[in-house]
Amino acid sequence: MELFLEVTLKLLQGFGTTCALFILTLIFALPLGLLISFGTMSKFKPLRTVMKVIVWIVRGIPLMLQVFIVYYVPGFIGITVLIKHRFLSATIAFVLNYACYFSEIFRAGIEAVPRGQTEAGLVLGMTKGQIFTRVTLQQVFKRIIPPMGNEIITLVKDTALARVISVMDIIMEAERFAASSGIIWPLFYTAVFYLIFVGALTLLFGYLEKKQSYYKI
Amino acid sequence: MAFLKVSNITKSFGATEVLKGIDFTLEKGEVLAIIGSSGSGKTTLLRCLNYLETPDTGSITVDGNTYFDAEENKTLSESEIRKRRLHFGLVFQSFNLFPQYTVLQNLTLAAKLLRQDELKKQYKSKAISKEEYKAKKSAIPNELNGIAYALLEKVGLTEKADFYPCQLSGGQQQRAAIARALALTPDILCFDEPTSALDPELTGEVLNVIRGLKSSDSTMIVVTHEMEFAANVADKIIFMANGVIEEFGTPDEVFDSPKSPLLQSFLGKNSFAG
Ligand SMILES: Nc1ncnc2c1ncn2[C@@H]1O[C@H](COP(=O)(O)OP(=O)(O)OP(=O)(O)O)[C@@H](O)[C@H]1O
Ligand SMILES: [Mg+2]
Hints:
The complex is a heterodimer. Chain A is mainly α. Chain A has helices at 2-40, 45-60, 63-76, 81-84, 86-112, 115-123, 128-158, 170-181, 185-211. In chain B, the strands form two sheets. Chain B has a six-stranded mixed sheet with strand order 6-7-8-3-9-10, with helices on both faces. In chain B, β4 (57-62) and β5 (65-69) form a beta hairpin. Magnesium ion is lined by residues 42-43, 192-193 of chain B.
């Protein structure tokens, strides 16, 4: 029993790191993803091309490799701050990676809003900014709840990749029990933490979806 | 001097010349019906009037003020275009109501934003005090709701003010869209086939509303395939074909003694009984 408590506390500590990585990634990757989606939809072709290439590269390389790249590569050109900060490195890699995935979800959501909505706003004398914030955005939000929910749940589990540069996440804590005292069950116990977290997120997305169901698009 | 004067409007999309020099005038309080076969450029003309397309050449003058001039237009700021386009309103074939807002909110949203902007400008230029600004700002919703309810009564939708578009029939949605366009008091209200997306049994209620709007100070341009409506409601008829005005006249002239062979065959196909 004592051991169970000790394991639970240690795992909670690791889970804190996992959650921090998750939340920071969301906070930065969501707005960045929206900006990238504007870039990939830009009328200015050079910008559009550059953004599309970036999205292609970031989505085309394994996230694990990107974590390594952010951690090690800046050191080659004399930027040593990242090699000293594992968690920061992991966060940057995750933000970039997820922003690109989110950007594609945003793009699909924005492009799905009929052109007539914007035109109706224009002939009513609204500015493009007003049309985006007052008309388009809420419809985009409603459309992207399911794919966003999917992606965000994937993020919960992807955080486990951060331990390739020894970020002390929940699984790494569990592995330390296996390494130091040969007990292996904490590793499987971590699943409970993930399941509870993902369960809560599933409820949250279900709630958001329901809240937006008062109108049809 | 005519209330609306449209001169030499041309518009090409790439190599296709869609409007090949459109000229017409309209007096205040008149209803103009535009008829013509598919692809003749009717929608494009309305979109030019509403600044959704920029004509390649030509000018548009309302009440003596030139609101569009192909020469000058390239230098206009977005806010200037916004101000000018408010002289025209547009009712779309597919309604284009904002689905997340109630009928009432659809009617008041744009007007609210406009008034708030104006008020903010007055406040920033120190024309009004902070107290005045706050008082006026908080009075906006009530004022606008009053206007909106009056318009909803006009189109017979008072009971549906708090409904969402998805809870309305097509005819009700289109009537709400008409009220929304009227809320900004355009000088000239344009309709692009307002009943084409509706089931036949619902066209009557929308056409009746448009008929009811006819008055000495509401000028309207209606693109329509409803020949009977055009004949009975319009003061002037334009028949468009291949990007030009093929025939222009009163309903009697256009329907009873069509000169152009294209119009004759168009009317024949549309089996119009008169
Ligand atoms: N944005 C655009 N790009 C290219 N071609 C266009 C565009 N908009 C319209 N056209 C072309 O212009 C022509 C006229 O179109 P328009 O929609 O004005 O016709 P219409 O008279 O309204 O027809 P309908 O009765 O079918 O609504 C068509 O041949 C159409 O393909
Ligand atoms: Mg059309």
